[in-house]
């Protein structure tokens, strides 16, 4: 997002010690990105860039409503075990991701954070198992948001998956200078189905070997993407995620489920 080069409210990397020390920050956002090819037209950092931007906007929206939400720096690497034959894909094993998250959670525990939202921007990051493992040992309420699923995808012809229309539109909105301008150079994001019927029918799941499953590393046709659709989608996602963060800031961990909403 173009901004005026003053520190963005709630973005930890841009804050001073007194700003953090002298306020209460009940909710933190931890974006989970990735470093991997995104078709032929988007940058390796797409997921990290989008996760960081959504986190910053959510923090701004919450702070404007009077709830202090801090956006932590993004984890720039994701789980990419099936893309390691693509140059400069950097993989973080799920077990490493768990160790990173455990250390972040422990670092936040003494400082009044009540809820930590894992703001995921990469499909290979399956964070639920991490949260299931860590939640019993921390008082911080842990939640996961896959940002690309947080808004209405029906504005897209085909939202697509990896570097598809949704993700392309979002980068066109947030960082247009990083999108290859000549659309003739964009791959069509065609992907190959599994040769196993059980996988095609959804009976079984197997990780996709990216160089077998894709042609241009993309999954989903990006060519209908527009910056306007990206803006609309991201604004709605930010609104919904912000509303959740404000809820979480005052939630009672002993009463997250009840027969009637309070
Ligand atoms: Zn991506």
Automatic annotation (TrEMBL):
Its cofactor is Zn(2+). InterPro entries: Creatininase-like_sf (IPR024087), Creatininase/forma_Hydrolase (IPR003785). It comes from Gemmatimonas phototrophica. GO terms for biological process: riboflavin biosynthetic process. Keywords: Hydrolase, Metal-binding, Zinc. GO terms for molecular function: hydrolase activity, acting on carbon-nitrogen (but not peptide) bonds, in linear amides; metal ion binding. This is Amidase. It comes from the Bacteria. Belongs to the creatininase superfamily. Gene3D superfamilies: Creatininase. It holds the Pfam family Creatininase.
